[in-house]
């Protein structure tokens, strides 16, 4: 079946979409990437809600925004990870998580069934509801780690950075700490809101690492906590930067250089073996160069999965697993008490007809490159797709 995957990450820089052809071959899921793209995130939806009315409006407006994107693509099912607006963690335990982007709007616009709200079932089972990327990574990298004869680490750098370590001993996954979140917060403040990110690491490249600020940042107790663990912009945000930099003065370039180094070091400290990177942070050349000096870094494109669309392809995979009654979490990664089917299904235009549930959990994922006839390629133009 063809699944449309949707997600907006914690950086809120775009609505990511991917279309994947998915099938089962015994205990292996076969994923063929068809196309992926980014669509602008509505600027007016970046403001955090401050009341129940705001929250209701945001849920509707995000749902409409996701629906508008999904309606541009052809598929059999839509799978939406939505937009995380709050992740509630106390004393190292996740007590709740909230993703917005009401799926009913997507179902209404596309006529397709929609799987959404994936994280909360894992949380209810004692997990962190994150990182769900571990589902794709664990299935995908098991064979790679075996062939390499050493562990492999899948890395996603969004607002928060998360990793999945795959080795003969099993799978461990967790959030390492800030990815782009602190860099974006600093850039927004330093530019008086004119820029929300340090594009291409422009500021960081001109600066030098401020030793005292870096020491203060690295002293955050989150880094010493045992896995599984998760964090978010509830912790790593502008107020956090104000507290940790109190009494220090430095050029903006040094501030960005230090935050970039923090992300690189805290990621590298948790990685083993070959590191396969994806996510928006991989577009920051200064961050990538810093990481490359610390770890054996490759991109997921080299293994057949487009790095720019990996999270949206993850969303498609999660929806496919739920549709077939399969568990879509990795308990050793999220901390859940066991494997669980994730998400809730909103019917589309027609009566809901689910396939016969698959009884045995899948154990592998194969990425298959799409075969195209010569002269028949996809062209992308502002989200409008035509076959030529």
UniProtKB/TrEMBL annotation:
GO biological process, alphabetically ordered: amino sugar metabolic process; peptidoglycan turnover
Keywords: Kinase, Transferase
SUPFAM superfamilies the record matches: Actin-like ATPase domain
Entries under InterPro entries matching the protein: Anhydro_N_Ac-Mur_kinase, ATPase_NBD
Gene3D superfamilies in the cross-refs: 3.30.420.40
Molecular function GO terms recorded: ATP binding; kinase activity; phosphotransferase activity, alcohol group as acceptor
The EC number(s) this enzyme carries: 2.7.1.170
Matches recorded under Pfam families: AnmK
NCBIfam families (alphabetical): PRK09585.2-6
The protein's name: Anhydro-N-acetylmuramic acid kinase
């Amino acid at each position: 079946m063809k699944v449309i995957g949707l997600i907006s990450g914690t950086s809120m820089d775009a609505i990511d979409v991917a279309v994947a052809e998915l099938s089962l071959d015994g205990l292996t899921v076969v994923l063929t990437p068809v196309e992926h793209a980014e669509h602008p995130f509505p600027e007016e939806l970046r403001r955090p809600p401050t009341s129940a009315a705001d929250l209701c409006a945001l849920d509707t407006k995000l749902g409409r925004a996701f629906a508008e994107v999904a309606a541009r693509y052809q598929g059999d099912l839509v799978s939406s990870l939505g937009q995380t607006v709050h992740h509630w963690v106390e004393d190292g335990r996740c007590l709740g998580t909230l993703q917005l982007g009401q799926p009913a709007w997507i179902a209404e616009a596309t006529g397709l069934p929609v799987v959404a709200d994936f994280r909360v079932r894992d949380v209810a089972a004692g997990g962190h509801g994150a990182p769900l990327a571990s589902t794709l990574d664990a299935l995908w990298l098991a064979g790679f780690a075996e062939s390499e004869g050493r562990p492999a680490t899948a890395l996603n750098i969004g607002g928060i950075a998360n990793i999945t370590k795959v080795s003969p001993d099993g799978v461990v996954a967790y959030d390492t700490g800030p990815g782009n979140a602190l860099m974006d917060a600093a850039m927004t403040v330093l530019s008086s809101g004119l820029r929300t990110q340090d594009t291409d690491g422009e500021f960081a490249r001109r600066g030098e690492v401020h030793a005292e600020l870096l020491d203060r940042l690295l002293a955050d107790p989150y880094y010493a906590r045992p896995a599984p663990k998760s964090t978010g912009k509830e912790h790593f945000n502008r107020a956090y930067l104000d507290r940790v930099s109190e009494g220090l003065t430095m050029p903006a370039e040094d501030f960005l250089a230090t935050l970039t180094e923090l992300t690189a070091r805290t990621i590298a400290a948790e990685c083993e073996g070959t590191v396969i990177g994806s996510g928006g942070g991989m577009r920051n050349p200064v961050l990538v160069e810093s990481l490359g000096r610390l770890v054996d870094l490759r991109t997921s494109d080299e293994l057949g999965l487009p790095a720019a669309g990996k999270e949206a392809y993850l969303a498609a995979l999660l929806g496919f697993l739920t549709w077939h009654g399969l568990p879509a979490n990795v308990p050793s990664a999220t901390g859940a008490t066991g494997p669980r089917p994730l998400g809730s299904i909103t019917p589309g235009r027609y009566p809901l007809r689910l396939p016969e549930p698959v009884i045995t959990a899948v154990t592998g994922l194969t990425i298959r490159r799409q075969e195209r006839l010569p002269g028949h390629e996809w062209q992308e133009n502002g989200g409008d797709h035509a076959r030529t």
